[in-house]
Amino acid sequence: MGPGYTAGVSYDESEMNLAGDLLAGDVRALARAISLAEDRDPQATALVAELQAHTGRAHLVGVTGSPGGGKSTLVDALVRVIRERGRTVGVIAVDPSSPFTGGAVLGDRVRMSRHTLDKGVFIRSMGARGHLGGLAAATREAIHLLDASGRDVIVVETVGVGQSELEISSLCDTVVLVLMPESGDAVQSIKAGILEIADVYVVNKADLSGAEKARRLIQDAVAMAPKKPWQPPILLASAVKEEGIGPVWEAIESHRAFLRQSGGLEERRRERLKQEVIALVAESAREDARRAVEGDTPVGRLLRDNRNGRLNPYSLAADVRAMRPARGAEN
């Protein structure tokens, strides 16, 4: 249940058939539902709850890495390979947000325009809108909606800044980390511990010098890490030239097969559900706190009347937490 959720909320009359249309594969209904999620409309929360029984079939693939590493080009090439294998695909590309509109700046739908007429592909750019992890707050709901619509594969591409590399591991079944030679990506990823979350490593732009050196750095780092049942492959690819993309998809498929056979898929999804519950509670608490400090409440009035800025934030936070049982009273 997301921010603004009210028990028993239902769709207005214009949205009554949205769930049925989405389940029937109507692309316009899917686009409308994701727009509601981006707007943090309570109807999106109700819709996701209604469709929950129809989710859980799609393979969720996260693609992350530093900006400039060619993630979008790699995703575009992967979509082609996935479609050649006869699978339907949905792409959520989380971009930096415009400071004026809150919308996505980079516009992956433009960059992936060759798939526009393919009904088996749905691509949506979403602005991060200042979300701390670099993933849009509505990303979780968009994943559920794409899953319910019957997409076989859902690819989530992150902004590649902040903690998005780590956050993506709590959203997806398979995480692909894209690195670039001669950029220091491999070294920085080792230092940040990001290598630990990857299930498949891709050194992109492998036609540049330093690709093999980057591969060896990753290989050495993986060798020094504690052994795991799944040993992530380290692949060289050139997304622009569409070279090495087939092996990347095959590695993703192999990882999914491994998860199914080992029971790891169920374990990851249980953990994902737990993290989603925690995130939803946190979002709700953040919204409650915003209302408390901005609304006509004792804390809000105290903050507005304060002249010297010397109020104790810990005491005020305790007062806000104490107000939570009265949630919505100031709406």
Characterise this structure.
This protein is an alpha/beta fold and 331 residues long. The chain has three domains: 1-53, no CATH class; 55-262, P-loop containing nucleotide triphosphate hydrolases (Rossmann fold), CATH 3.40.50.300; 277-326, no CATH class. The chain is built from 13 helices and seven strands. The protein has helices spanning 18-23, 27-38, 42-51, 71-84, 108-111, 139-148, 164-167, 185-192, 211-224, 245-262, 264-294, 298-305, 313-322, and strands at 59-65, 89-95, 121-127, 153-157, 174-179, 200-203, 234-236. A seven-stranded parallel beta sheet has the order 3-2-4-1-5-6-7, sandwiched between helices. β6 (200-203), α9 and β7 form a beta-alpha-beta unit. α2 runs antiparallel to α6 and α3 crosses α6 (139-148). The two termini are 18 Å apart. The model is unreliable at 1-11, 97-109, 130-134 and 326-331 (pLDDT under 50).
Number of domains: 3
Strand order of the largest sheet: 3-2-4-1-5-6-7
pLDDT < 50 stretches? 1-11, 97-109, 130-134, 326-331
CATH topology of the largest domain: Rossmann fold
Output the number of helix runs.
13
Which characteristics define this entry?
single chain, 331 residues, alpha/beta, Rossmann fold, 3 domains, 7-stranded parallel beta sheet, disordered N terminus, disordered C terminus
How would the blueprint of this fold be written?
Layout (H helix, E strand, L loop, with lengths): L17 H6 L3 H12 L3 H10 L7 E7 L5 H14 L4 E7 L12 H4 L9 E7 L11 H10 L4 E5 L6 H4 L6 E6 L5 H8 L7 E4 L7 H14 L9 E3 L8 H18 L1 H31 L3 H8 L7 H10 L9
Helix pairs in contact: 2-3, 2-6, 3-6, 4-10, 8-9, 11-12
